[in-house]
Amino acid sequence: MNAMTYKGYEAIVEFDEEAELFHGEVVDLRDVITFQGRSVDELKRAFAESVDDYLAFCEERGEEPDKPYSGQFLVRIEPALHKAVATAARRSGLSLNKWVTTMLERAAAG
Known about the structure:
By secondary structure, this protein is of the alpha+beta class. It has 2 domains: 2-61, no CATH class; 79-109. 45% of the residues lie in helices and 21% in strands. It has a 4-stranded antiparallel sheet, covered by helices on one side. A hairpin with a 4-residue loop joins strand 2 (9-16) and strand 3. Helix 2 crosses helix 3. The longest helix is centred in the middle third of the chain and has 22 residues, at 40-61. The chain is elongated, with a radius of gyration of 20 Å. The chain starts with a strand and ends with a helix. The model has no long low-confidence stretch (mean pLDDT 91).
């Protein structure tokens, strides 16, 4: 798998050897944007056209296009848990943000 970017959108690309066709999908969005091409140039054009079409479609409908993740999100937790994780972060010598990021990285790694 390889990645491509266009206007801040990232896509993962695979090659179907049997069909001799590249398939791509934009990642990190709730919306689905896919594209395909038989050559690298065709694939790049299809990716750009798909993203541009998506942005135009959203504009026509007066909707805000889904954006790649910003790296920020709000989490609401019970006050007792908030106190516990803040204390754990302090004991670890980390900021609450860094401690939570470390725990999330560990959980995501499996």
